[in-house]
Structure formats: C-alpha cells, structure tokens
Specification:
The complex is a heterodimer of chains A (420) and B (248).
Chain A (H helix, E strand, L loop, with lengths): L2 H40 L2 H35 L1 H35 L6 H30 L4 E4 L2 E4 L2 H5 L2 H31 L5 H30 L4 H8 L2 H15 L8 H28 L3 H6 L1 H10 L1 H16 L4 E3 L3 E2 H4 L5 H32 L25
Antiparallel strand pairs in A: 1-2, 3-4
Helix pairs in contact in A: 1-2, 1-4, 1-6, 1-13, 1-15, 2-3, 2-15, 3-4, 4-6, 6-7, 6-12, 6-13, 7-10, 8-9, 8-10, 10-13
Chain B lengths: L1 H24 L1 H4 L3 H32 L1 H9 L2 H20 L6 H29 L8 H22 L2 H7 L8 H24 L9 H25 L11
Helix pairs in contact in B: 1-3, 1-6, 1-7, 1-9, 3-4, 3-10, 5-6, 6-7, 7-8, 7-9
The chains are: A mainly alpha (420), B mainly alpha (248).
Chain lengths: 420, 248
C-alpha cells in the first residue's frame, strides 16, 4: 500500500466506525426522547424505567461516537491538508457551523441530562433530551452539507487556485446534502427501531421478569420501523437519481457507460483513471439494497404480529429472528456508506480535487504509524463498546446505573461551607 | 474579529478543560482507593463533556475561518497531533468506561488509562506549544513540562473547590489549606496563567483568516450567547461541592 492508501484506510476506518455509532445514536436518542415525553406527561413508572434502560444504551454508544468524531475532525487537517487548503474556505464553514450550531450545545446538554438526572425539574430534563435530539439532527445535517459538497460541489467560486463560498443558500440546499440527510436520518430510525425490537425480543424469548416493559418496547421499535423503511426508501430512491455518472456506471457494471465516463473525464481533466472501484461500489450498493429488502419484510411481518398479544409473549421463533436481525441494519448502513464514498473516487471533491491531491505531504512511516495506532485503539474500544452494550442489554432494566443514585463511597461528614 | 472568535474558544478550552485534564493527572495523588478516585472523578464528571466541546469548536473555527492555519498547525506537527488525539480518546474512554463494571481490576485499569491519557494530553499540548514557539530538540521538553505542571496545578485547584473532607484537604496543597478564599484565589491564578499561555501562543500563529469570515463570523457571534448560556446552566446546576459518586 502506498501512503495515500494508508491514509484513506485510516480515514475510512475512523469514519466508518463513527458512522455506525452515530447512526444508532441519532435513532436511539429520538426513541428515548419520545419515551421520556410519555413518561413525563403521564408520570408513568414503566416509561421512566424505559428511559433509563434505553438511555443507558444510548449513552454508552454516544461516548464512542464522540471519541471517533473528535479524531475525524482533526484528521482532516492532519492527513488531508490538500483538501482543507483547497476547499477549506468552502466546506470548512459547514464544519465550523456544525461545531457551534450543533455539537457544542448537544454535548453540553447531554452532560446536563446525564448528570443532572435528579437535580433538575422533570420538564427541564425532558426539554434537555429534545434539544440533544434536535442538535444531533443539526449535526448530521451540517456534516452532510460538507460531505454533499464533496459529492456535488455547488455554490463555490474558484479564485487563486482555491475554492471560496459564492452562494451559501446553494450550499445549504445542495440535493447531495439534503437528500442524504433525509436518507441517513430515516435509516438511523430504522436501525434504532430494530435494535430496540431485537433487544426486547431477547427478553421476551428468555421469559425475563420484565414482560410489560419489553412488550411496550417491542411495539415501539416495530411501530417506528415501518414508517422508517418507507422514508429510507423514498430518500434513497431520490438519491439514486442524483448519482454521479461514474458511481452509477460502476454500480450497474455497464461497460459502455464506464467507457463513456472515462472518455468524458479524460477529455475534461487529462489522462487518468476516473472509474471508481467497481467491486466496492456494486458490493456496497447491493448489500444495502438486499439487506434493506429483508428488513422491509421483517418490519411488515413484525407490525402484523405485534397486534397479537399471544405472539408478542409466546412466538419464540419470531423473537429469535428479531434478535438475529440486530446486526442487519448496521450492515445495510455500512453498505450504503461504502457505495456513496467509494463511488465518489477518485475524487475527494468531485471533479475538482482528487483524493491523491487531497493528502498532506506525509511519509509512509508517519501514515503507517498513525494507521496502526488509531486502528489498534479503536478496534479495542469498538469491541468493548459492543460487548458492554450487549451485556447491559442482556442484564435488563434492573441493573442500569444511568439516572440512579449511586451509593456514596465516602461517608458523609460535615465540611466547612465554601466562602469567597 | 475572526481571531477573537478563535481565541475565545481556544482559551475557553485551556481554562475549562485544563481543569479536568489536571484532575486526571493528579488522580492517583487525590484518590488512594477506587472509591476515592470515583469521588474525585465526580468533581469533573458533569463538566468534561461541556469542556471538551470548546476544543471541538476551536477546531471548527480553524476549519471554517483559518483553513490555511488548520493545515499548517495539524499537518505541520503530525507526531504531536496523533499523540494528542490518542491521549484524548483514551482519557475519554477511561472516564466513560471505568464505572460501568464493578470489578476492581477493571476500574484500576481504566483509572490508569485516565491518568496516562491526561498526562499524554498535557504533554502533547506542551509539545505543540514548543513547536509553535519554534523550540525543537531536547529544549522543547522545558515548555512541555512547564505547561503540564500548570495543567496539574490547575486541576488541583479545581479539585480543591469541588471536593470535601480528606480529598479537599489533599487538593488544597497549593493554597496552603487557607480555606475557601485561598482555594478560589489559587484557581483564579492558574486559570489566568493558562489564558496567558494561550494568548502568547496565539501571537506566534500565522493568523491569516480565510474568505468565509465575512458571513460566518456574524453567525457565530450571534450564537455565542446561546452557547455561553448553555454552559452557564451546567456550571450553575453543579455549583455545589461533590457529595458522592456520579455516573462516571
């Protein structure tokens, strides 16, 4: 592998891990906020316990989303200086707005939600989770504005060899960003819905004590999954109409169109290989579509079955099917992400800057060290994250520490008051 | 104006997150048992999420307002930046994970990771500082060590304001156990020192703004009161001393 491949692999591993965490976070935060709304309005004890249990899974996962996201933000300037030098004035503003419009408030309020559980008025606590959810959406939107610009650069002018923003509105309404935002957001609902349904089905199959708790959770998960599949497919369908010619040609494995793309790009940009890696693009796209098809049927079947209380409590084959389904939406999302990003190659900013040009001048040793170090750390953390999620999910609502008051480890003793 | 916006977030990070990094550095000194360490971590628990976003925002300002400097600073110091990011990831992972399991070995391991990550962060910032002010080779260790010591002192001062009893007594070593006033004064002093380091380092950076500032800066300035209010809500909610362990 040369230096570009090493740097690409590193960014792909970080971004892919980040995307898989964030997808669950976006969807699960929404479900938690919905449950907390129900719990707050009705003062319902079972819903309050549901907030704590699903919120615990959400918080464990959120932490991994943060640490991978932090690395990504700085990796852009570290390993992709060609990109930030060339396009930083244009798409960098979307990243800047992501930090102040979305992430800053999201993280600050999430801290308040986690640690202020019993200190805040319950309506204030409810408002916090909704702000966290909405700013999480905003965060996804701004990141997709930056990514959409790389897929389909609009609203820029080229001056002095670098890009500048010419039309903010065009950048913010870029279909490559807005359609992707709708698609990713709906897919994250679908993902979280199937995670919720699968974990609930596990407890129902094992006949654990929490029958009502998991019956409600199962129904919420499946109930959300169906509209989510329709939304995901709608935005995905519109997205298919917006594919770059190279991506569409590679996906369809159409030799005539591939040759045409190659000829047109060569005429525009000089000699080079302008066809994205066909194997990756078609495998990613087909995986996404096939798994989605399966999820669609599982969702319809689930919504019908959940209407029958006997099935909800006793249909074990269905329960275990739902448990086995948990990894599927993750696989579909990864497939879709590979399809989108591999299909953009060889461009970092489509038609303007190649991935090779986007790289920082770094030595192979530096690229290799950084790849190995981050991959090792993230591999361990990813394994721990999913192990911890599975363990927490299996142990059920009785052993959740979020929102509970941990016993003091140091006995209370009088302490002089703080005076200034 | 762009420079002020960047400085606001960068100095906010140094002063606020400097405290939680410092507490992580002196964790073995403050907390001698796993239970004590958990109580020490409760001092920073509600704040560290809201503190590190200042750096995320500073990074966002670099990307949006100073794209040229972003590349120079990050790609120009690859080793230090990789070390900084790895330390940050490990420190955060340690904070999030250490109390998820009750096993003693698990907690001791992650306590160790928190301490190592915090030292890594402090020393990486110090090395980056050396790089920015143009000191290379072995002499670069001097500014790195000084800044790390400053972070640690700031952490102790913060812990003295947040903890009670024995833990507070240990943390108040810098203020000579002179009580609340002395503790407040020590914290103000270390905070000012960190801010001064931030300003002086900033004067050595090539702060040449990009082309987006004309429309981006007003948007960011308009948002600042919201961001500060969100943070103030956190500080106000957790203004009292720690009374026991938290979620972390």
């Amino acid at each position: 592998m040369d230096t570009v491949d090493l740097a690409r692999l590193q960014f792909a591993l970080t971004a892919g891990a980040h995307f898989s965490f964030v997808a669950l976070t976006l969807g699960l935060a929404t479900l938690v906020a919905v449950i907390q709304t129900r719990a707050t309005i009705g003062r319902s004890a079972v819903h309050l316990r549901m907030v704590r249990f699903w919120g615990q899974l959400y918080v464990i996962n959120y932490a991994m989303g943060i640490v991978t996201g932090l690395v990504m933000e700085f990796q852009l300037g570290l390993a992709w200086r060609g990109l930030t030098d060339f396009a930083g004035n244009a798409f960098g503003s979307a990243l800047a707005l992501e930090t102040v419009v979305a992430f800053f408030v999201e993280s600050t309020f999430l801290g308040l939600w986690i640690f202020g559980w019993d200190r805040l008025n319950r309506w204030a606590h409810l408002a916090l989770i909704w702000v966290v959810v909405l700013t999480a959406y905003a965060s996804a939107y701004w990141v997709l504005v930056a990514n959409g610009f790389m897929q389909n650069p609009v609203g820029y002018r080229r001056e002095g060899g670098v890009l500048h923003v010419a039309d903010v509105a065009a950048m913010l309404t870029n279909p490559a960003a807005t359609v992707a935002f709708g698609h990713v957001l709906s897919a994250s609902f679908l993902l979280a819905a199937f995670v919720m349904a699968g974990v609930s089905a596990y407890h129902l199959a094992r006949r654990t004590a929490e029958r009502e708790f998991f019956r409600k959770s199962l129904r919420l998960g499946l109930g959300v999954s169906l509209p989510a599949t329709f939304l995901t497919a709608t935005f995905g369908g519109i997205g298919f109409g917006l594919l770059q010619p190279g991506k569409a040609a590679a996906f369809n494995a159409d030799p005539a169109r591939i040759a045409q793309v190659q000829a047109e790009m060569t005429a525009l940009h000089g000699p080079g290989d302008y066809v994205p890696p066909q194997g990756w693009v078609s495998a990613g796209g087909i995986t996404m579509l096939a798994v989605f098809g399966l999820l669609f049927y599982l969702s319809i079947a689930g919504v019908l079955l959940m209407l029958f209380r006997r099935a909800v409590y006793g249909f074990r084959l269905w329960h275990w099917t739902l448990v086995a389904t948990i990894p599927l939406p993750f696989i579909a999302m990864m497939g879709g992400w590979i399809f989108r990003e591999m299909g953009r190659q060889p461009w970092a900013v489509y038609g303007l800057l190649t991935t090779a040009e986007a790289m920082s001048p770094m030595t192979e040793g530096q690229a290799r060290f950084s790849l190995i170090a981050f991959t090792a750390v993230f591999a361990v953390l990813v394994v721990i994250n999913y192990w911890l999620l599975a363990r927490t999910a299996r142990r059920g609502p009785g052993e959740v520490s979020l929102g509970g008051a941990p016993r003091p480890t140091v006995p209370e003793r009088p302490d002089p008051a703080l005076t200034f | 104006m762009e420079i002020l916006v960047l400085a606001f977030f960068a100095i906010g990070y140094l002063v606020l997150a400097g405290a939680d990094i410092g507490v992580g550095m002196v964790l073995p000194y403050l907390g001698r048992t796993p239970g004590e360490r958990r109580e020490v971590l409760a001092a920073i628990a509600p704040f560290f999420l809201g503190n590190e976003v200042w750096l995320v925002a500073a990074g966002g300002m670099l990307a949006g307002l100073f794209p040229r400097l972003e590349g120079e600073l990050l790609a120009g110091n690859p080793g230090v930046v990789v070390a900084l990011l790895l330390s940050w990831v490990l420190r955060d992972a340690g904070l999030w994970l250490r109390s998820r399991l009750a096993a003693r070995a698990w907690q001791t391991w992650w306590d160790g990771v928190i301490v190592a990550g915090s030292w890594g962060l402090a020393l990486s910032w110090g090395s980056l500082l050396s790089g920015v002010i143009g000191i290379a080779g072995p002499p670069a260790l001097v500014p790195a060590a000084v800044l790390a010591a400053l972070f640690a002192a700031h952490g102790l001062a913060f812990a003295a304001l947040r903890l009670r009893g024995t833990l507070r007594h240990r943390a108040a070593v810098l203020s000579g156990h002179s009580g609340g006033t002395g503790e407040g004064r020590t914290f103000a002093l270390t905070a000012i020192a960190l801010a001064v380091v931030g300003v002086l380092t900033g004067t050595r950076l090539a702060l040449e703004a990009g082309s987006s500032g004309s429309w981006l800066t007003p948007v960011i300035l308009a948002l600042l009161p919201v961001l500060v209010a969100a943070q103030a809500w956190v500080w106000w909610t957790f203004r009292h001393r720690v009374t026991g362990p938290s979620y972390l």
